[in-house]
Amino acid sequence: MHIKDLDTPVPVIDLDRVERNIDKLQSYLDKHGIKSRPHIKTHKLPILAYKQLEAGAVGITCQKLSEATVMAAVGIKDILITYNLIGKKKVEPLAQLARQVTLSIAIDNELALKTIAEAAKLAEKTIKLLIEFESGNLRVGVQTPEEALELAQQIKQQPFLSFEGLMTYPCGAEAGRFIAEAKKLFDKAGMPINTVSAGGTPNMYRVHEVAGVTELRAGTYIYNDRNIVGSGAASFDDCALHVHATVISRPTVDRAVIDAGSKTLSSDQINPSYGQGHGYILDYPEAVIRKLNEEHGIIDLAACKDKPKLGEVLRIIPNHVCVVTNLHDEVVVHRNGVIEGTWPVWARGKTR
Amino acid sequence: MHIKDLDTPVPVIDLDRVERNIDKLQSYLDKHGIKSRPHIKTHKLPILAYKQLEAGAVGITCQKLSEATVMAAVGIKDILITYNLIGKKKVEPLAQLARQVTLSIAIDNELALKTIAEAAKLAEKTIKLLIEFESGNLRVGVQTPEEALELAQQIKQQPFLSFEGLMTYPCGAEAGRFIAEAKKLFDKAGMPINTVSAGGTPNMYRVHEVAGVTELRAGTYIYNDRNIVGSGAASFDDCALHVHATVISRPTVDRAVIDAGSKTLSSDQINPSYGQGHGYILDYPEAVIRKLNEEHGIIDLAACKDKPKLGEVLRIIPNHVCVVTNLHDEVVVHRNGVIEGTWPVWARGKTR
C-alpha cells in the first residue's frame, strides 16, 4: 500500500530520512569524541530508540519516569531521566526501574535527591545523579557552580547514589562558562565530573565548540520540523515526519479547510522569525495555516497562484514535531511512499 | 483514596460539578423547548455521554467518524457528525456506522455528499444530512441560503439520503439572519427544515434568543475552562476538570516550575481579554504560567505574596479543556476529593 492511499489525517514517517538523520548526527559526534544519548521524547517509539542505539548511542534519554518505564520494558538498558522526580508516588516505580536498567537522573534540588535516594535504597541499586544547571533557558537548574557543588556533596553522603556530573539545556557560550567554572571548583573539592551532558537539536552541530561536554541528548533531530529548519540545523528535505491532511471544505476562493486541527498538529507556535501559521504545506508553500480549531485547520490561500482543490491531500511539516507524535496512537512508516508498517506510539501520553 | 494522594500530573474531574453542569443546561433547554445534543469531543467518555442522554439529551454530537465509531460501539443510538466526511477511505467505516445507529451528518459541499451517499447506498440505510452554514466563524459552511438550497436539492436526489435541516457554529445574530432568510427560501421551494442545530458553550444560555434553532450542541459546558469563564458562561466553581501538578523546581525566588507542560496542558491560548498565561492556578491566582515546554510549566511568582513551595501540588484550570482531555489516556474522577474511578478516555486521539 502507498501512503497516498491512507485515510487522513495521519502522521507519516519516512524511514530513509530517519536513518539518514540518525547517521549524520552520530558521525559528527563520533568525529568529535562526544557520546550520543538521544532523547526519545520526540519519537516515543522503542524501535527507533533501538535504531539510535545500533547506530552508536551509549543509551537513551527520557523526560519522564513513565516514558523510561516503557523503554525499560522493551529491554533498553541504559537510561538517563533529565527530570526532577519528586514525591512519595515516584519511589516504588523508580525503584522498579532501577532494578532493571543502568539509571542516571538529573536533579536541581534536595527534594528530588531525597526521592531518588529512597528509591535507590529500596532497590539496593546505585543511581547516578547529574546536576542540572542554568545556561540561559530560564527553566530549571542550579544558578551557580557553588550550588552545584553543595548538591553534589549531599549526593556523596547517600549510600546508593553516585555523583556523575553536570547536565544542561541548551548548550551555548553560557553553558561553556558554567562548565569551566564548575570544573575548577569541583577539582578543588576533589569531586571528579565524569559526564557533562548537553541537550538540544538546534545547536547539535556546534556542541564540540563547548569545552567539557561529553555527551549530547538531541531529540528532535530524528524527525526535524519547521522550527528546526528555521534554526538552520536541518532543511525541509531532512524533515522525516509529514502530516497528511485532506481539504474538506473550500468555502471561499481564498480559504481551504483541512481535517487537521490542534488535536492533530498541536497549537505549538512557530518562532515568528522563521515563518507564520501552524505548519508548512509542502505542496503550497505560499499558503498559511492561519488558525487551528480542534479538528479544523483554516488555510489562507490569498498568496497562492495555484490553489488546492476540495478533496486534495496536503503534506504538512509541523511547527513542533515532538508534540505532534504525542497526539497520535500510531504512526505510519514508509520508504519512498511504500508503507512498511504502522507503529503504536508506545510512550505516548506518558507524562508522569 | 483521596485526590491529594495522586501521582502528578493528572487530570482530575469533579463528578458533582459535571452533573450540575449537565442538569443546568438541560433545564434551560427544556424550559425553552430546545433539544440537547451534546458534543462529546470535550470528554470523549462513553459514561459521560450516557449521563447526558439520561438527563434528557436526544442524541450526541461527534466531530469525527472515528469518535462516532467509539460511541456506537458502546451502544449509543443517535449520533450527529458535524463534519464533512470526504474520500474513499471513509465509505466502508461510515456504512458500518450507518448500520448501527440513527445517523445524521453535516456537510457544506458536494464531495462530502457523494462520499456519504456511497456509504448510505452500501449500508442500505438512510443518513440524514444537515447543511452547515457560515455564521461568523469563517471556518466551513455555505456562504448563502441559495447555496444551502442548491445542496439540499441535490440531497433529495439521492436514494438513501434525506435532507434534515441546517447546522452552524457559533450561534448569534448572524446565524439568526441566515436562518430567517433560509426558512423563506426553503418554504418557497417546498423543502421543510426539520432541524436547525446550533453549537457553542459561550452562547449556550442565549440560544433561545435565536429564532428557529431547534437543538443545541454544547460540548465544553460539561467541564468548562478558563476561556468559558472569561466568556461569562460559567464561573471557576463550575470548572469540573482540574489538572494537578507538582512544583518540581524553585530555581529562583520568583520562579516555580511544575511537571505539567504542553504535553499535559496543551499550548492552546487564553483569549487575551480574559487573562494571560497557560492556565489559572486556583491556589495562587496571581501566579502566571508564562511558558510551557513539553513537560515543564514555568511560573512567574513576582505578583504573589505567598509563593508555592518545592514539592507542593497545584490545581490548574486549563485554558481549553477539550484539548487537555485529548492528551490523556485516563482521567481520575471524584466526589468531594474521594476517588470514584479512573476512566480510560476511549475516544482520545480519534482524529479520523
Explain what you see:
- The structure is a homodimer of 352-residue chains.
- With 352 residues, chain A is α/β, with parallel strands linked by helices.
- Chain A folds into two domains: 3-9 and 228-344, Beta Barrel (Lyase, Ornithine Decarboxylase, Chain A, domain 1); 32-222, Alanine racemase (TIM Barrel), CATH 3.20.20.
- Helices cover 30% and strands 25% of the residues of chain A.
- The first copy, chain A, has ten helices and 17 strands.
- Chain A has helices spanning 15-31, 46-55, 65-73, 88-100, 110-123, 145-156, 173-188, 226-231, 262-265, 321-325; strands at 10-14, 35-36, 60-62, 78-81, 102-107, 127-132, 161-168, 195-199, 215-217, 241-252, 255-258, 280-281, 288-292, 297-300, 313-317, 330-335, 338-344.
- In chain A, strands 1, 10, 11, 12, 13, 14, 15, 16 and 17 form a nine-stranded mixed sheet that branches.
- In chain A, β6 (127-132), α6 and β7 form a beta-alpha-beta unit.
- In chain A, α3 runs parallel beside α4 and α4 packs across α5.
- Chain A is elongated.
- The mean pLDDT of chain A is 98.
- At the A-B interface, β10 and α9 of A face β10 and α9 of B.
List the SSEs and their pairings:
The structure is a homodimer of 352-residue chains.
Chain A: E1 10-14, H1 15-31, E2 35-36, H2 46-55, E3 60-62, H3 65-73, E4 78-81, H4 88-100, E5 102-107, H5 110-123, E6 127-132, H6 145-156, E7 161-168, H7 173-188, E8 195-199, E9 215-217, H8 226-231, E10 241-252, E11 255-258, H9 262-265, E12 280-281, E13 288-292, E14 297-300, E15 313-317, H10 321-325, E16 330-335, E17 338-344
Parallel strand pairs in A: 1-16, 2-9, 3-4, 4-5, 5-6, 6-7, 7-8, 8-9
Antiparallel strand pairs in A: 1-10, 10-11, 10-15, 11-14, 12-15, 13-14, 16-17
Helix pairs in contact in A: 3-4, 4-5, 6-7
